[in-house]
Amino acid sequence: MAQPVDERRRVYRAYRDSSEVARVLVDDDVGINPDYNNVPDVGASGLEIVFLEVHEAQRGSGVGRALAETLRWRHTGRRLVAYAKKDADGFWATLGWIRHVHADPANSDWLTLFISPAL
């Protein structure tokens, strides 16, 4: 039987009418940069969303929100962590996730860190 290349990482996919419309890669190994402000210690309960992609034609339809919420319920007791792409801060904020900025906000290269509230 074939084993996953990396057992800490998993991909979840969302389908509509048998076509993939979104996917997300999660990793048990959460890497939070210590230079972000007011970040809680998520410890072993952390689960990092490495990426969440929604097909361009499906953006704004709620499929990304549904996928993120499904992950929260599927991994109850875990804190989900995501570094938002430059244009995705609004998406994560509308989910009610807690926003954390880098200690050097003048440097625009830092992505915003979002952490889901505890369930």
TrEMBL record:
Superkingdom, taxonomy of origin: Bacteria
SUPFAM superfamilies assigned to the protein according to its UniProt record, in alphabetical order: Acyl-CoA N-acyltransferases (Nat)
InterPro entries: Acyl_CoA_acyltransferase
Protein name: N-acetyltransferase
The species this protein was found in: Propioniciclava soli
